[in-house]
Amino acid sequence: MIGSPLLSDAPLLLLVTVVYLAMILGVSIWGYLHPKTEEEFLAAGRSIGPWVGGAVLAATQISAGTFVGTLGRHYLTGVSWIWIWFGVWAGWVISAIFVAPKLRRFGALTVADYVGKRFASEGARTLAAALIILTYTILLTAQFQAIGEIASAIFGIAPIVAMAALLASTGFYTALGGVRSSSHIDFVQTLIMVLALLLAVPIVISHTGGLTALGEYVGSIEPRVTGWWFTWRELLAFGAAFGLSIAAAPYEMTRYYSMRDVATVRYAIGISLAAQVLIGSCVMILGIGMRGIFPYLPSADQASSILASTVMPPLLGSLFLVAMMSAIMSTVNSILLVTGGAFSHDLYKRLVNPRASQHRLVWVNRLSIVVLGLVPFWCASLKLADVQAIVIEQAKFIASFFFVPVVLGLNWRRGTKEGAIWSMVAGFVGCLVWSFTFQRGFASHGIDSVEVGVVLSAATFILVSRATAPTPEENLRIFFDRVEP
Amino acid sequence: MGFGWSFYGFFIAAAVWLVLYFVWAFGAARDR
Questions:
Q1: 3-state DSSP helix/strand/coil percent for chain A, to nearest 5?
Q2: A232 CB neighbour count, 10 Å cutoff
Q3: Residues of A in contact with B11 (CB under 8 A)
Q4: Predicted pLDDT at A2
Q5: How far apart are CA A96 and CA A318, in angstroms?
Q6: Rounded distance, CA A237 to CA A54, Å?
Q7: Separation between Cα atoms, residue A95 and residue A117, nearest integer Å
Q8: Interface mutation vs chain A, best among B5, B16, B20, B21, most A CBs within 10 Å
Q9: Three-state DSSP class for A384?
Q10: Burial of A282 (C-beta count, 10 Å sphere; 0-12/13-18/19+)
Q11: What angle do CA A114, A144, A82 make, to 5 degrees?
């Protein structure tokens, strides 16, 4: 890219990147010295505190979608998209009240562990693990696609090279150190993201002559950019889709297990909310600021790459680029921890080798992290949809098959294994069928596939559970009779 | 036309949301 301050100072960019990767390597080697058991590898020995825990939850949620897709969405449509965050945060509050305390008290290792124990069913556990691996492989594809697009936009290198670098670095530190080192790396990555965004805001605003001038200028190009591009109904529907998926997101729920106790989980969710407020606000201002500086970019998704490479001075541009890498790496890391854990703990240990030693389980987990990281390479090369669309679609599927078994399952004693299995099937199939048949874009009729999926899943759960034998008392006691650890 | 309620209102609403959340979280910990 000609005239890019970032690329004109390549040694500086290289230095910042090397320092960042060296930090990751150091922490992951430290983590490698810890894990000897599955509990250490998948739950960090239940040692994570509220600050690191909060950063973990935020880093997991903030992904390529936020830095590329959301920033681009603000570039194109302006302010009003910011209000969908309240849907996301409503999901977090549902999780904090109805999901996290019970899951943490249960203290298992994977999300499918919960399904297996709550419904006393290995079938339900296997189905949950398989669906999680399937949908998260799709989400991983979006992250790979994003790194490929960023690398080719800024450096002009082939996407496949950037994808390989992402898997080599993130796959390596995830497989090496497990949840303990991943959590501390997430903490640093969240700090980098918040810092880079906070530093970028005044630079962009000064380029546009101040906040008031920016508002007046972009408002004169298109008044809806500073007002309401989306209607309240649209914002509510998008927000509900994100909220439903966050309330039962396996990559967030798994991390509750690694925190010290229930109070730590609640504080961690609060700290993650505060980080999200900061990150969401900065991303909005940067998106609109880029519209003020470059009103007619060919693609809104280019706004963040051009911001890092052209608008920012070299040092801050390098930091912003590392923040974008951090957003992608932390999400890929969390996905790999969930899919690797689901494969080794829920499928291999239960179905293939029930007598596997702890040492063997940890190594199967490491191997499955690498293998499951390779699958999205092929998917990403197909480029089935753009990054933000894939992120939104997989969120709808997760909500459709998992919200009801998790949120209702944890709060309604009468839910049974048959109810759980059929509600997962109905939610998944309902979302799939509606997406490919009746849904022709959200605005055309107002009923989104996630609403269809969740309603079908809930109705099936209640009706089938009522018609089948209750779950054994000994299993229910773990979740419904409050026993403090 | 510059920024209006959709912009400034968000910051107010987000601040209120955070305060309410932490009031609840501290209260829940005290009730233990």
A1: 80, 0, 15
A2: 10
A3: 281
A4: 43
A5: 36
A6: 27
A7: 19
A8: B21
A9: coil
A10: buried
A11: 75
First vs last Cα of chain B: how many Å apart? 51
Report all structural domains of chain A as residue ranges with CATH numbers, in order of start: 5-387 (1.20.1730.10)
Length of chain B: 32
Judge contact between A138 and A335, C-beta under 8 A.
Answer: no
Residue A1 confidence (pLDDT) above 80: no
Across the interface, of B7, B17, B22, the residue whose CB is closest to A79 is B7
Distance CA A478, CA B5 (A): 47
For residue A483, the tally of other CB atoms under 10 A from its CB is 7
Mean pLDDT, rounded, for B1-25: 95
Reported as a pLDDT band with limits 50, 70 and 90, residue A485 is: very low
Q: Which of B2, B6, B18 lies closest to A274 in CB terms?
A: B18
Mean pLDDT rounded to a whole number for chain A: 90
Q: A380-412 b/e with 16+ CB inside 10 Å = b? A: beeeeebbbebbbbbbbbbbbbbbbbbbbbbee
**pLDDT of residue A438 exceeding 80:** no
Is the CB of residue A399 less than 8 Å from the CB of residue A245? yes
pTM score:
0.92
* Tokens at A64, concatenated: 């390529």
CA distance linking residue B5 with residue A84, whole number of Å: 15
Contact A251, A334 (CB under 8 A): yes
From the list A226, A263, A269, the residue facing B7 with the nearest CB is: A226
Q: Which residues pair with A48 in a beta bridge?
A: A259
- For residue A259, what are the β-bridge partners? A48
| Of A349, A457, A434, residue with least CA distance to A116 | A349
If we measure between CA atoms, which residue out of A330, A348, A147, A185 comes closest to residue A251? A330
| Nearest-neighbour CA in chain B from A213: distance (Å) | 8
Per-residue pLDDT, A380: 80
* E strand or H helix that includes residue A457: helix A449-467
Q: Does the beta-carbon distance from B21 to A212 stay under 8 Å?
A: no
Query: Residue type at B26?
Result: F
Cβ distance B6 to A267 less than 8 Å, yes or no, reads no
In the prediction, which pLDDT does A435 show? Answer: 83
For A350-406, write each residue's pLDDT tens digit: 899 999 998 999 999 999 999 998 888 778 877 767 777 788 888 889 999 999 999
The Cα of A277 is separated from the nearest Cα of chain B by a number of Å equal to 7
Give the rounded distance of the alpha carbon of A232 from its chain centre: 25
ipTM for the predicted complex comes to 0.96
The H or E element spanning position A126 is helix A122-154
